[in-house]
Amino acid sequence: MRYGIAVIAPILGFLALALTGCAVDRGPLTFPDPMALVSPSPGMAVVYLLRVPGEPVEVQVLVNGERVAKLARGTFTAIALAPGRYELLALEPDVSMPSTASALTLVAGDRRFLYTAVPTRGTEGFGLAPLAGAVVPVLKAGQVAIGARRWTALSEFDAQGLFSVLKPVGAELYAP
Predict the structure, then answer these.
(1) Rounded-to-integer distance, Cα 128 and Cα 17, Å
(2) How many CB atoms are closer than 10 A to CB 103?
(3) How many domains does the chain have?
(4) What is d(CA 7, CA 12) in angstroms, rounded to the nearest whole number?
(5) N or C terminus of the chain: which is more exposed, having fewer CB within 10 Å?
(6) What stretch of H or E contains 68?
């Protein structure tokens, strides 16, 4: 079958536009500078508490049962603590969601990084969805909680990566 110029020209024009439209010189790839970290005061330790991006709920941060911060989605804070053993808890407003206490032992000069998240696993299944006046089967993917919210240690390098997408919030209390 022969195609005329009236059919081929718009197709070639669209392809040329699509292939060159993304070819913009944006310069070299750059990364943000690492965030300046708080140094612990003499005889103290600093603990950075981070939220995993994408978790929608706000959590209350408790250290030894005392509320020290409130972390909304996409935030982090730093708290100063004296050397010793602490129990950290991150509570959600929905008290039906369990939270597991995490033990933390600090010595003077420590700088630690912890994030809180609910462990999940991916799920897949089939469902039905309307499409153009018909109902068609679709694959559904999601996440299911498989445990209680807990604090997990991470490296300074990983924390710096999260800092680039999180916002700092002030702690309401610096524990002695």
Answers:
(1) 37
(2) 9
(3) 1
(4) 9
(5) N
(6) strand 66-71
Confidence of residue 176 (pLDDT cuts 50, 70, 90): very low
Beta bridge partners of 47: 79, 112
| Cα 47 to the center of its chain, rounded Å | 18
Report yes or no on 137 lying in a domain.
no
Report how far residue 75's alpha carbon sits from residue 167's, in angstroms, rounded to the nearest whole number: 5
pLDDT confidence band for 4 (50 / 70 / 90): low
Q: Is residue 176 part of a domain?
A: no
Residue 107 falls inside a structural domain: yes
Q: CATH code at 94?
A: 2.60.40
Instruction: Give me the half-sphere count of Cα atoms (radius 13 Å) on the Cβ side of residue 59.
Output: 28
Asked if the structure places residue 17 within a domain, the reply is: no
pTM score, two decimals? 0.70
* Amino acid identity at 2: R
- Rounded CA-CA distance 72/93 in Å is 11
Q: What is the largest CA-CA distance in the chain?
A: 84
